[in-house]
Each structure stands twice: as C-alpha cells, then as structure tokens.
Amino acid sequence: MKQKIIYAILIIAIILPVLLLSDFRLSILSKFLVFSIVAISVNLLWGYTGILSLGHGAYFALGGYAMAMYLKLQSQPLPDFMEWSGIETLPWFWKPFQYVPFALVMVVVLPVALALLVGIPLFKSGTKGVYFTIISQAITLIMSILFIGQQGFTGGSNGITGFKGVLGYALGDPTLTKILYGLVVIVLIGIYFISKFMLNTHGGTIIQAIRDRETRLRFLGYKTHTFKVITLATSAAICGIAGALFVPIVGIISPSIMSVLMSTEFVIWVAIGGRATLLGPIVGALTINYAKTIFSESLPEYWWYFYGFLFITATLIIPKGIVGSLLKKKWFKNVLLK
Amino acid sequence: MEEFLPFLFNGLSISSILLLTAIGLSIVFGMMGVINFAHGEFIMIGCYSSYIASLVLGSKGTWTALVLAFVLAFALAFAIGYIVERLVIRKLYARPLDSILATWGISLILQQVARNIFGSNNVEAPMPKILNEGLKVSEGITLPFNRLFIIIITILVILLVYIFMYKTPKGRILQAVMQNRAMASCIGINTKKADAFTFSLGCGLAGIAGICISMLGSVGPSTGQNYIIDTFLVVILGGIGGLRGTILAALLIGLCNPFIEYFTTSSMSKVIILSLVLVVLQFKPQGLSPMKDRTID
Amino acid sequence: MINELQRLLRVPNPIISLRDVEVDFDGYKALNNINIDFPFKGVQFVIGPNGAGKTTILDAICGRVKTSKGKIIYKGASEIQNRNPEDIVHFGVSRKFQNPTIFNTQTVFENMKLALLIGKSNLWYLFNSKITKEQQDTIESTLLKLNLLDVKNKVSGALSHGQKQWLEIAMSIINKPELLLVDEPIAGMSPSERDKTGELLTQIGADHTVFVVEHDMKFVSRFSSSVVVMHEGRIIDRGTFDKIVNNERVIEIYLGRQN
Predict the structure, then answer these.
(1) Are B109 and A314 in contact (CB < 8 Å)?
(2) Distance, in angstroms, between C65 CA and closest chain B CA?
(3) Contact B292 C25 (CB under 8 A)
(4) Looking at this predicted complex, what is its ipTM?
(5) Cβ neighbours for B134, distance < 8 A, ≥ 6 positions apart
(6) How crowded is the C-beta side of A219, counted as CA atoms within 13 Å?
(7) Do C125 and A224 touch (CB under 8 A)?
(8) What is the pLDDT of residue A257?
(9) Which of A189, A274, B291, C168 could, after both became Cys, cross-link B241 (CB 3.0–4.6 A)?
(10) What is the pTM of this model?
(11) What's the burial of C120, exposed, middle or buried (CB within 10 Å: 0-12/13-18/19+)?
C-alpha cells in the first residue's frame, strides 16, 4: 500500500513541473536532472568504491561532444568554426557523426575508452587514494588543453554551439523542452534502478569491499584492479550519457565543462546529498543547483562563500549527507523502506 | 653550449618556481597525508602581500618594500594557515579524500575574500627597478634579473627548510612525526602541535612563493589556481619522503619544459609533460623518492 | 653442522620450496639466502626473536613483499616469487594476517560470502545476488567449526578480538587452500580460545600444510609437529620442539633472552 502511495507521489512530482513551470524553468529543471545523473555516476565510483575522481568533467564532455558533433552536422554540412580556421573539408573522424546510431554509440564508447585508457594502467600499477584523484584532475586538464588548442576540430574554447534543432524541433521550442524533460526523467529513473540492482549483486558487494579493505580482497584472490576499472568505465558511461542529454537542453558544449571547478562541483552534489546512498546524489544535485539559482538571482556576491562552506559542511558537519543523515532517523526509514 | 644556455636558464627558472610552490605542499602532504587544495590561495595571499607592501610604502618598488613583502607574506599565510588548520584540517586526519573537499571549499572562500577586498581585476605589484633588467650574456641572450633572483630565493628557501628539518631539534620532531606518528606520540611529542605548525609552515612557504610569482606579472584572485595542478604533480611525482623527491621532480619537469616547448607549442608541451609525468608514475606509483615501510592498508 | 641443517631443510616432494630467497629493505636484508622445503600436510611453526624475518617469509610466499633474489617453487612446478598476491591465492595459498583483517562494516556471513565466491570460475555470479544452498551450507559448516555460527548475522566489526581472528581464519580456509599461512593467530586470545585455535590448526594440518608464525612457546610446544628457528634473516634450525630447545645456538639467541 505504502509502496503505491510513494509511486503515486513520485508520478505526480514528475508531471507537476510540466504543468506548472514555464518552459524556461522546465528546461532548467531538466538540466538539474541531467546533473543528478552525473552525481549518480560520481557516487558509484566515490561513494561505493571509494575512488574519488576529480575528472568526471572529461567523461561528461566526451558524451556531450559526441552529441554536439551530430547536432552540428545536422545544422551545417561544414561547421562554421572549421571554416573560420580554414578547414575546407570535413575531417574523417567527424564524418560518421552525421549518423544518429554512430553518434549515440560514441556517447558511451568515447567516455568508456578514456576510462579504460586511464583506469587500466593506473589501477594496475596500484595508484590509489589522493594519487588517483590528482591524476584524474590532471588528465581532465590535458583534455581541456587539447580541446581548446584544436580550434578547427573542436571549436576551441567556444565549444560547439549554434544547433538548428533536435528531432525536427527548433531549439527552445516548448514541445521540445517537454520531450527532453520526459527523456531525461526516463533515463534518470532507468539509471537509478540499474545501479540499485547492480549494487545488490555480488559484484556490488565486492566493489564496496574494495572501499572498505582492498588488501584483504586481494589476498582472498580478487583482481581488485579489474573491478575498479569496470566501475570507472561504468561510471564514465553514465556520465557520458548525461553529457549527451545536456547538449540539446542547454544548446552548447564547451571545454569549460572540463574545468576543475565543474568536476569538484559534481563531487559536492554527492557529498551534500549523501555518499553511498542511492537517493543522495539526486537530492544533492537538485538541492545545490536550486540553491545556486536562487543565490545567483538575488545574492550573487555571497554564493561563493556559501558554496565554500558547503564543502566544509559536507566533510565536517554532515559527512553522511542529507539522505545519509535522514536514513538514521526512524520516521524516514519507515516512510521510505517499509 | 651557447645555444643551450637559454634553454637551461628557462628550465631552471621554471623548476625554481615549481619547487617554491610545491615545497610547502610536499611537507604538509608528507607529514599529514593531507592534500591542501587551498595551497594555491596561500600563494595568492603571498602575491597580494607584495601589493599591500607597495600600498603601505608607496608604489616606487623599493628593496625595503620587497623585504617587508616577504615578511608579510610568510606571516600572513602562516597565520591564516594556522587558523584553517585549527578550524578544519585538524578534524580530517586519516580522511585524505575529505581533506581535498574541505580545502577546496576553503580555496573558494579565500578567492572570494580576495575578490571582495582587492576587486576581481588583476593588480600589479611594483618591484625594485633593477629586477626588470637583465644580465647580458651575449648578443641576443639576456638573463632577466627577476628570474635569477627567484632562483636564488628558491635555493635559499630550500637550504633553510633543509637546515630546519634535518638540523634543528624542532625539525627533528617533525621528522619523527612524519615517519611514525604513533611512536612519536608515545615518546611524548605533541603531534597535534606539530601538525598545526607543519601546516602553517607549508602555507607560509606558499606565501613566499607568491611573492616570487608577483615579480613575474600582475596577480589576481585566481592566480593561485594557475599553479595548483602543476604543483600537485610535482609533489606526487616526487613522492612522500622528504625534500629530495620534490627537488628532483621539479628539476625534471622544469628542465624538460623549454626543450619540449621548442619543438611544439606551449599548450602541447604542457600536454606532453603531463603525459610524461603520468607515464613515470606508472612505473613508480609511489613517486621518484618514496619512503619505504611495511604498513598494511 | 651446516650440512646437517641443509639436510633438515629439504623434504622429499615438497608443496613449496624456497631457494636462495632474499628480501631487501633498502639495504637491510630481512631474508638472507633462505632455503627450505615444506611437506604436504602438517603444522609447521616458525619462531625467532623480533626482526628475525618470520613475517617476511610469509609475506614473500604470498606476494606481499618482493624478493630481490631466489625462487619460490610451488609443487615443484610453478615459480610464484614476485607474482601478484591475487594470483598466488589461486595456486592454493591463503594468508591470515597478524591483526584481524576483515570487512568491518559487513556481517560475518557477508565476509564469508566474499571469501567463498572468488572460488567460482563462472563470472555470471557477479550479476547475481543470491547464493546456492550448497554454498550456504559450506559457509555455515565452516562457521560452525570456528564457533561463529551464532553470530553469523552480526556486523563483523562488533565481534570480540578472538572472534575476529577466527573469522579471518574461517575466510582463509573456506576455499580449502593447500597452504595456509598464519601470522600470530593467538595474539590477544583467552586460554580457552587458544586451545580451540590450536586444535583447529592441527585439524587443518591433517589435510593441508599450515605455516604458523608464533611467539608463544607454550602454544608452540603443544601444537607443533615441526619448528623452524629464524634469526637475523636466516634459518638456524629445524626439528621437533624438544630438539630445537636443546640446540645451544637457539638457546643463546632466542630462548636464552627470555629467561
């Protein structure tokens, strides 16, 4: 019975914004939900496996660029920034992106490929803890320098923008906004339940054991680095999907998404929402982004102070995050789990 | 030889800045296992110190102002570092990943404080005139005095840190804590005090690095951010275990830089160097000069 | 005398042989030219003063430290020196650490499950959340052996020190390793827990090789079939407990200091 009520509330909560919010607000909400997907991917790696990546911006960007390349080619046979850089024919690696299936596959393949490239050597050589964190950040820096430097192929620091439309609708079309909102909600729910299922399997138990005591696991005979690589790749794939959804909603992808600031933001959503909880990342991403919107509309000056304190709060005052702290309360557990 | 001189000098100059910015971070990381993401902002505090000194003593750029700036930078960064350690870092021992997040928060706050006090625009700190000139070695090759000066300062700072860490009783206490915290605590060393001091010292050294950076150009609230990732890489490439690794890493990265840049562009050389560092770490995951021990977990 | 010792260290058809093994910690030789064989079955104890290299021998065998020289040969066929720990486990070598090393946030049963599942060759178990009746029985019978069945649903961090030690032993033996390496199993245990542990090791030793580092002489005298004495990275003597306590050199370097 309770289960049904919760589902009913959930469905209302999903439909209500479509009826109540303006298209502008609905599109912002979609963006926040995309960020929730990013937060889930970060949480999978950090909350459950204990690996902190400050470079998820790169995976997000790769998914985003794959989508943006498709959308750009739909708008112009030769992207305008290529013309500006004096490139007259479409480079070979751009060509297949005019086909939807290829672009959609690349949304996942590119981030996963980077994750494997980074993860296999690093985890195999036993890089862990802060070392991995810093290296992940450096790799994202490398990526962003490369993307900015290759103006003719990537659009440089302006990124890729100026899309005509998506799915036959012009960008900003109210119908499109609603479609995209629906799409994001479906993907979010899908990823939520897939990760919930995965974490309950033996594989899920193993990655959590890596977080708690990797050495023991190795001496039991587990190749822990393989599990870490798989988790990183999964996380990167989810992040790439989020990147791809981000582009049609916002209408641009640029290297600024690969900044240190952005990648740390991903992490703080998880920390505030509640690491190693399923709902935490979603709650965190929505709460903080909503707070950010309010601040930037009324008190932009103070946002950075508030934001800085959030990081300290998340580590010192509520290390379990919002959801983690609530889970300790009986009434919350009763509502949610019984 | 003549052709190599500019490369060598540029390399040394880059190495010296890397070393100056990394040395404080390296000490803090080695001793407390805490990665201080606000290290860049302590560098920024140093940068603004020379600006403050010029406000107080007039904008002529005198040696007195520069000396005052050094004292101010160290004292200010040390003091703010002490407060930060007391309020935040202290509670995060043995939680290195959390310390990254908390110090990142501190970094954001300090940047905003700087923006509120000094404005978002960059400021120029006047330096003694002579520093803007150079030593003419031959036709076409001039070694700027400011860069020479920074190299000298770096050597001095390293010497002082070395003498302090290895030759004074207080430094030996820090060494003891670094090598075996539990044991040091057992023989009556107040490890909390040692931690507070180490963290503040690391921040103070960042302040000094900041002064040197302010000699090279204008500085702003986000100046520290430009140096932070390079600095981290120097520290992890060097490995935990004292000054030797950090010096080695800084020299390696710094000296490679101009040569690689010669063959490519400056942004590509950055990419190549970062990649090289990652490759080296692949073979030496604990860094170039690691401390060996047998602890598990 | 030297030749006599060399003869003692060899056994016919060993499960594992160390040949000229050396472990170097920055110039300090924790193991110096170690040559020894272990027979199939039996409880082999190793004793020696601090810094003798007892734990390092275990570490070298199970891959926790790198050897700088020499070979470790498993069943006369495979060289296992300097391999990854996780690979060595699959030869049939299992390790119990000195301090209880278990997954503190998981229950006793989940700990055992993690230890058991690695034996599976089919990777699809990763996507499964259930275990078979047979696996359930294996876990429960192992837990029963170690008096842990009553606490199987307790979070393992909440166990007593002795119980944690047992849990780790249970995890180490659930996949029936051929060689079990045990580092000071009875540290922090009560007398009755010690007896229980000793009986258990003897019981395991009936079918498998058990290699135990231990300080407690009473315990060694009661449960050892053979004892190796180490000193400063070398092996000094091997034999029954009664034999080695009468070796003058052993008395001098080790037992003498205790009196």
Answers:
(1) no
(2) 9
(3) yes
(4) 0.88
(5) B142, B143, B144, B145
(6) 29
(7) no
(8) 92
(9) B291
(10) 0.91
(11) middle
